[in-house]
Amino acid sequence: MTSELPKTSVAETLAEKIVAMKPGSLPAATRRKCEDLLIDVTGLCVTARNEDYVKSALAGWDDDGPCTAIGHARTLTASGAAFVNGTAAHGEDFDDTFEGGPVHAGAVVVPAVLAACERHNPDGRMALIGIAVGCEVLCRLSVVVPKAVHKAGFHPTAIFGAMGAAAGVGAALGLNARQIVDALGIAGSMAGGIIEYLAEGAWTKRLHAGWAAQSGIRAALLARQGFVGPRTVFEGVHGLFNGFAHTTEGDYGALTGDFGDRWVIDMLAFKPYPCGTMAQPYIDCAKRLAARGIKAEDISEIVCEVAEGTVHRLWEPLADKQRPRNGYAAKFAVPYLLAAGFVHGGVGLGAFTEIAIRDPKVLALAAKVKFVIDPDNPYPNNYTGHIRATMNDGSVIEERQPYLRGGAQEPLTRQDVTDKFALNAQHGGWDRMQSDAALKLMATLYDGRIDLSSLRG
Q1: Mean pLDDT, residues 393-398 taken together
Q2: Is residue 155 within 8 Å of residue 172, measured between CB atoms?
Q3: Considering the entire predicted model, what is its pTM?
Q4: How many helices (H) and strands (E) does the chain have?
Q5: Fewer CB within 10 A of the end CB, N or C, for the chain?
């Protein structure tokens, strides 16, 4: 088998491009996106800090250290802080999305790089490089074999997140090309994340980002000390893609071809609603339908045209999606989300309490929501919504949303991002003084020495 291995592997090509990145070399748009990611992730950590799953994550990680778990007084090791922050940032499903994946980059890479730098290299310039590189690797990996990882039963953010975190931490800590190859190879054996949480709304999806973040730190630190990983971790016959996508045939040029010259993370989307990404255009459609003055009781049926690749996560079993078992399951139930958006004029963090998900008006409408597969739906390259409401009198009213708001075609402004941060911080119990201090810190974090102590408590 040795003679059949490539002279230069995919990981080796990627690593050479990563080590060529220098502080100050990022385009202005890419730096700005990394600034937005820092603000967004910090706010998400704060908004979730009092939730049961975050309390469990913090209590279940028993190695204290010098690093910041955002919104908490207790400090942890770098790996522990990355785990807790990543779990919190992803936990409300309000984090950024790469539309081509779909994957959530910020919730993995920002916690990993911040924790690693806080402990090992508190240089904001290198943290910026690490976050940019890590997010870019994660997003590009998701389009090597589009949709295949989800179809195989795995969560792409978890699988590719470990690799992105390893690359990002490696770049931030100044690893050489050989060490980055080893870090990627090691992280391949740490990647994992099944999507069985969908069955009953279990919490495990929430920890996928945190686990990937801490895995990336551990892989990079092991590699820095000479631990060897397989250089063919991506394309090998027993590599990442064969394991999690059931094929080694992929577009590896999408990962390495113009890496460093074109930044796909410039197109990262920030969600307007705290729930599954592909559901969001349907919520927009429902809001517009309600804005016409239509009453829920006058609707006989709502049929949504959907992408086949979203059905197993957001539409089936249909009865469970019309009446979700708990608040977390409701985040991945389009019939419920559509109905909540129609009845309440939107979907916020309050839509997932045990009381909210039993709202009889919402459930009555959700029971009328069905789906058909649209073979021409552009998912995952674009997220669209189309609903067709049949009224009791037989008339039909349609609404369409041609793209994901907050994404490339209608991005959030910096003010939108900071407004979202303020609302999330308020929801998490921070006062205005704490929020303003955090924003002031983040405005200069990439230019100086990293000190996250003011984000504790």
Answers
A1: 97
A2: no
A3: 0.94
A4: 20, 6
A5: N
